[in-house]
Amino acid sequence: MKCNYSILLLLLLVVSCQPELDYKTSGYVQKIIVEGYISNNEYPKVYLTLNIPLSEKVDSISILNNVIRYAKVTVSDSLNPNVVEAKTEILTSGWETDKRLFPPYKYFGRKYKGEEGKKYYLTVEYGGFTLKAQTTIPLKTPIKNFSTKPVNGNDTLKSLFMTIDINPTLKNSYRVYSLKKKDGYYKETQLLYNSKFILSGTNTFGINPTVSKIDSSYSEGENFVKGDTVFIRLCTLDSVSTDFFSDLTLFSSSQGMGNNLLIGEKESLKSNISYPGFGIWYGNGVSTYRIIIP
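and the corresponding structure tokens:
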């Protein structure tokens, strides 16, 4: 489960005349799309796909056809993964057990969990290419307190809020996820707090999960029911990850693609994956809480 814990599918739609991984489509540069992350006290996880050319229909079948299942993915806490003191692991690959997650194929660690403040290096080897990226897990941000308000005077249905302290010198941003037992999985509040790095001091934000019709809590909308047990995950991101996700969201919205499922190649999207890759390898500083809605 990732700290966006809803999978960010990065499919790059491009037209170009550069050398190709797949030479069958004229004028199409095929890229390796990477979304990987590592959180404190959790194993790393990476998703790999190939981008889809503009000439193809983009649907679940074409996406599945472009999932990469035979790459070598390595994560290490050392720039030189072969030194004796390095914690290095070649990730295992397999299908997701949760059918809600897409794409359904992942590379995941089993040996080393992430640690706050440490730098981690990602290497992806596929099709004769080697991609590189690095990230740091920021120090996690504690939630000072939670508060609720009745919805339209209804004492049963509540809006939920969290309060945190923001140190502007760190240039961190925040994503929040909530899990209701009745739903069984984490859902993101679709906002990237402090995306422009202008907030400081004590700030209060609403926790408003995005729901779908298949959720048991669909009738509650973005709210919570009094007496419910809820798990909250606050994820702290560094400035590199923040710039990527904020630009990705803005671009996806401007192109009418919804939140961030389908994206086009734009200079403003600050990928930290080396060529011929695109996407993001990022660290999460995670704080997790269990609360009962008062």
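(Above: one complete record from the training split.) Residues 1-27, 255-267 have pLDDT under 50 and may be disordered.
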